[in-house]
């Protein structure tokens, strides 16, 4: 498997203030990779350093096997970038701005621009100054995709989009991925990442705390059990290694369990039950587990 992005020990300090510290992870060709953390954790600093918009204090980053500082102009030809906030020349019309952007790639992107505008329901004849925040974000999405980049880097891409347009955007992103594009998707909205990504890096206070497949994070985390019992249950019946957050009332038992699931199923099999629910934790619960553990 080829790495499209390789980040090794990437550090950015602002004087004595923290930016990011010793960031390391890889993004494999063809994957949608999630980069999650709350606002201020260092996601945007990592992305801007990766794109050579700011220079690292130490460490290195490569895109397509090329050093991000030394080969920034060459790399930019095949990268689409959507920043968390977009700012434009307000007096330009949307089509004028997008054609100006396309001119940097020395190719006719007009059919592509019209295709994307139709999907996103964006009026190309309007002036930038007359657009809502959501429509300005659509301009940013088209600007990032108009040259059909091999790598798409998105920083909080859905802010400003209504729920229906978010759905359209995710479908568009999956379509680009099916066509071969690799995606780095930064967000603090965990449900988005869980929906879109196979692997995820969790960042806290400028440092990576975990890089893992979402499926593996779920497998290695607690499972939620809820048991509806027909009769009573002995006090302390579920006191066993791996059980926590135990709650018991007359007919229901609920708890979190981590360990060999066969052991807890043996305990459940020995009582009379009316119903049983076993749920995987969602990404938010896993995320909070890592933040609390690190704290």
Structure description:
This protein has 295 residues and is of the alpha/beta class. The chain has two domains: 3-215, P-loop containing nucleotide triphosphate hydrolases (Rossmann fold, 3-Layer(aba) Sandwich), CATH 3.40.50; 221-294, Alpha-L RNA-binding motif (Alpha-Beta Plaits). 33% of the residues lie in helices and 31% in strands. It is built from ten helices and 14 strands. The protein has helices at residues 43-50, 72-76, 94-103, 110-120, 133-145, 163-178, 190-196, 214-219, 261-269, 283-294; strands at residues 3-14, 17-28, 32-36, 58-63, 66-67, 79-82, 151-155, 182-187, 199-204, 207-213, 223-229, 243-248, 252-257, 273-279. The strands form three sheets. The protein has a six-stranded mixed β-sheet with strand order 6-7-8-3-9-10, sandwiched between helices. The protein has a four-stranded antiparallel β-sheet with strand order 2-1-4-5, with helices on one face. A hairpin with a 2-residue loop joins strand 4 and strand 5. It starts with a strand and ends with a helix. The model has no long low-confidence stretch (mean pLDDT 89).
Topology:
Elements: E1 3-14, E2 17-28, E3 32-36, H1 43-50, E4 58-63, E5 66-67, H2 72-76, E6 79-82, H3 94-103, H4 110-120, H5 133-145, E7 151-155, H6 163-178, E8 182-187, H7 190-196, E9 199-204, E10 207-213, H8 214-219, E11 223-229, E12 243-248, E13 252-257, H9 261-269, E14 273-279, H10 283-294
Parallel strand pairs: 3-8, 3-9, 6-7, 7-8
Antiparallel strand pairs: 1-2, 1-4, 4-5, 9-10, 11-13, 11-14, 12-13
Helix pairs in contact: 4-5
């Amino acid at each position: 498997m080829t790495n499209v992005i390789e980040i090794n020990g990437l550090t950015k300090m602002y004087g004595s203030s923290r930016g990011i510290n010793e960031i390391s992870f890889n993004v494999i060709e063809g994957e949608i990779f999630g980069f999650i953390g709350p606002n201020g954790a260092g996601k945007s600093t990592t992305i801007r350093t990766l794109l050579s918009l700011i220079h690292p204090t130490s460490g290195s980053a490569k895109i397509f096997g090329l050093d991000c500082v030394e080969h920034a102009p060459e790399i930019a030809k095949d990268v689409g970038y959507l920043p968390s906030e977009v700012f434009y020349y307000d007096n330009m019309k949307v089509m004028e701005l997008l054609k100006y952007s396309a001119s940097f790639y020395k190719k006719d992107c007009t059919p592509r621009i019209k295709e994307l505008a139709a999907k996103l329901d964006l009026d190309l004849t309007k002036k930038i100054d007359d657009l809502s925040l959501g429509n300005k974000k659509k301009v940013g999405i088209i600007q990032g995709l108009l040259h059909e980049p091999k790598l798409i880097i998105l920083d909080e891409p859905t802010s400003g989009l209504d729920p229906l347009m978010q759905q359209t955007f995710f479908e568009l992103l999956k379509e680009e991925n099916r066509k071969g594009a690799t995606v780095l998707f930064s967000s603090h909205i965990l449900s988005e990442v869980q929906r879109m990504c196979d692997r995820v890096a969790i960042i806290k206070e400028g440092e990576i705390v975990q890089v893992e497949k979402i499926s593996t994070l779920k497998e290695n985390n607690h499972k939620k059990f809820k048991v509806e019992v027909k009769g009573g249950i002995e006090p302390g019946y579920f006191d066993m290694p791996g059980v926590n957050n135990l709650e018991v009332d007359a007919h229901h038992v609920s708890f979190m369990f981590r360990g060999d699931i066969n052991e807890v199923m043996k305990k459940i099999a020995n009582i009379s039950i009316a119903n049983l629910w076993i749920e995987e934790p969602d990404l938010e619960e896993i995320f909070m587990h890592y933040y609390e553990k690190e704290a």
